[in-house]
Amino acid sequence: MKVIVVGAGITGVSAAEWLRRDGHQVTLIDRVRPGDPAQASHGNAGILGRSGVVPVSVPGLVWKAPGMLLDRDSPLYLRLGHLPRLMPWLLRFLWNGRRGKVEEIARGLAPLVGDSVDQHLALARGTPAERFIRHGFYTAIYRDRAAFEKDSFGFALRRAHGFEWEEWDRAALREYDPELSEDYTFAAALKDHGFITSPAGYVAALAEHFEREGGTFLQGEVADIAQAGPDRNGGRGTVTLIGGARHEADRVVLAAGVWSGKLAARLGHNAAMESERGYHLTLTGVSHKPPAPYMVTDAKLGVTPMEEGLRFAGTVDFGGIDGPPRTAPLENLRRRVRQIYPRLEWDGEETWMGQRPSTVDSLPLLGASPKAPAIHFAFGGQHLGLTMGPRLGRMTADMIAGRKTNIDISAYRVDRFDRH
Ligand SMILES: Cc1cc2nc3c(=O)[nH]c(=O)nc-3n(C[C@H](O)[C@H](O)[C@H](O)COP(=O)(O)OP(=O)(O)OC[C@H]3O[C@@H](n4cnc5c(N)ncnc54)[C@H](O)[C@@H]3O)c2cc1C
User: Fold this and answer.
1) pTM of the complete model beyond 0.90
2) In this predicted structure, what is the pLDDT of residue 234?
């Protein structure tokens, strides 16, 4: 078949490569080159969060959020002018943080993230992208055990899904990472995780491999997607670029990250999507790097040893998809460096803002549109989009080939937010 994939972040590149391996003639379209800073996939924390079954919206968040907005050290930001547009999404997002719903969401996330390290290896093995994949602990660090116990809901959920961790005291932490601040006296080191040492380099390498093996990359901005012809079931998909060029294919995959919502609306679907903007500060020429990533729980940020340097990444900034980046989250990240690594030295820094594609129920939209069956959705990876990208891409190829996905995909139905 002829297949067009719209969006060349980790999700689109993964889909394009798995489709190419199935023997399809695949064109990957994006307005930027794979690995570009305009993609969420460029500058994330690189963590393959295979135990990430706990969504951001959890019981109690609704009461904590207002106080967080007023605290200059908190990782939560909101642009007041965006509030009227954000409100319907935010209320549904917070409502989905009730206990029973979170357990249901966890059941939806588990099959997407659980085998993510293997999924990345299956995608990248034998390609130049393989060298970016590392195995290791994913360690949540706490001021003390009492702080860890406050997170017991999330850890119990992880355990219920079969994820295990080691509990480390100050001495064990010091042995693992002698440079870490003495203020962190407890850690939960989640086993058998992985990370990517340069998400931008990784996505670019995967795309180069795809092109080298016969896939096509076309740079352009998609203005519209539609189902061609009156025959809904046998029809083809069309993609119209800004400037008017029109491309037709047997299947079109929409994998445009946070921007997918707008294109899904053209087909009559509500993606219930919002941009959770996040930031990174990467220190270059650092005197020290930890063996594997941390989740710094009091600051809610990831610290990852990258090829580019030591990356501090986090923040949730509800500033709207088109709003300019702000400086306060970066100042916040800069203040955190010394709290985590009091003796660290470095010679430069690089900063970035990216947009997480987040639905109200923290689950992606995956599968063919019932309104336009030639068009498949693959987006909504939220805080775990790097982790689950290869999985979403592979399942998309499975569905297009008519193979069984061997997991229940009803939780990701693409019309679940539509008014019926
Ligand atoms: C600070 C931060 C830290 C993060 N840390 C992690 C982490 O440690 N682990 C993890 O798993 N996830 C993490 N994430 C989330 C992860 O980065 C995203 O969920 C993931 O990258 C989304 O990938 P994507 O391919 O769906 O979207 P993107 O990477 O955003 O790609 C979408 C692509 O679509 C293209 N596009 C959009 N509209 C059009 C159009 N009309 N025409 C042509 N092209 C178009 C865009 O140009 C873009 O290239 C983090 C995110 C942030 C912001």
Assistant:
1) yes
2) 65
